[in-house]
Amino acid sequence: MPPRRGRSIEVDFFRGVVLIVIVLDHIPGSVLSHLMLHTYALCDSAEVFVCLGGYASAAAYDAVLARRGSQAARQRFFRRSAEIYRAYLLTAVLTLLSGAVLALFHLNRPMVELTGWPSFSGAPLRETFDIAVLRRQPYLSSVLPMYVMFPVLVPFMVPLAKRSAGTALALSVAVWLAARPLAALLRIDDVGDWAFNPFAWQLMFVLGILCRVRPVSEGFLASNTGRWITRLAIAAALGFAVVKLFILTQPLPGHLKQNLSVERVINFIAIAWLAVVLVRSGFIAQVAQRAPGVVTVGQMGLVCFVGGTVISLVVDTATPRALHGVAHGLAALAGDFVAIIAVLMLARLWRDWKRDPRRAAVRGADV
Fold first, then answer.
1. What stretches pass through the bilayer (predicted)?
2. How far apart are CA 18 and CA 24, in angstroms?
3. Using CA atoms, how far apart are residues 75 and 24, in angstroms rounded to an integer?
4. Chain-centre distance of CA 195, in angstroms?
5. What pLDDT is stored for residue 193 in this prediction?
6. Residues spanned by the domain of 35
7. Nearest 5°: phi and psi at 283?
8. How many domains is the chain built from?
9. Which of 26, 98, 267, 361 could pair covalently with 42 via S-S, beta carbons 3.0-4.6 A apart?
10. Which residues contact 252 (CB under 8 A, 6 or more apart)?
């Protein structure tokens, strides 16, 4: 995607779609989740989410750098790391509180186990400490700990990528290849402790940075080489889809996602290339303009992620389990639509609250 002034509607649209998908994917009985990326590929929405995070971070760094200088840009991302840490703690608290409420009223026992409430209630002081130091990450909060670390990389990686994209990519790949032994430094040895090994997943974040700093030109896409790469990307995406649909039909081992296996990386790169082709054609911008609510979700990303954890838990608990067959499917589908509408409403309400002129006046007075 070409660098431009202001926010990218395509990036916000993709982020909005991914945030909605994350909510659906964490509703165990969801119908629509069976139509999402993980059904047709070895990668899933997590790769898209992290890569887009890298892209948006590089854009934000450049914007602050141009207006206020390098020192302000560095400080902005240190503060961002603290913001994400607070969001992680809030998500963990909401997850545990949801588990406590479900356990109190004897509702949705499988979800109670997923929230981590039983282990927390058994040793609250130890669990609180482990959560605070990122050793334990209740359920949906597990994607945020690596995001606490990634903003600290931005002031170093963006200038490096501008000077030498090859060096930045080589350094990221080297860390990815050594991810497992490096994870031992943080005592990451089990998916239950860290669902995402940050030393592995930084590769997706850096790829997003490179997409912003060194975008593919329209000329290259139109060249013979570019067209051949597009054909290979289509063939690879279709090949992985066949493998996922007809060969690897059972859930794959968790460590493949935790440590970002090479198959996931290759599959994602093929899909990402095709996404770039669609963006360059203007198709994604046209779709985004017709779905402003989804774009708003992408713009209010952190709030929608935190709120989405509660939405997924509530919808899953409220979906009747006594139904069977078509009735159960219709009830689950209705729950999916309720979840989507709830995320769209949350994004719009938060955006309007942020734009409230009375709040702006208060901020001005405080300054």
1. 12-33, 45-66, 87-107, 139-161, 168-188, 194-211, 232-253, 265-283, 295-315, 327-350
2. 10
3. 35
4. 13
5. 67
6. 9-355
7. -65, -45
8. 1
9. 267
10. 42
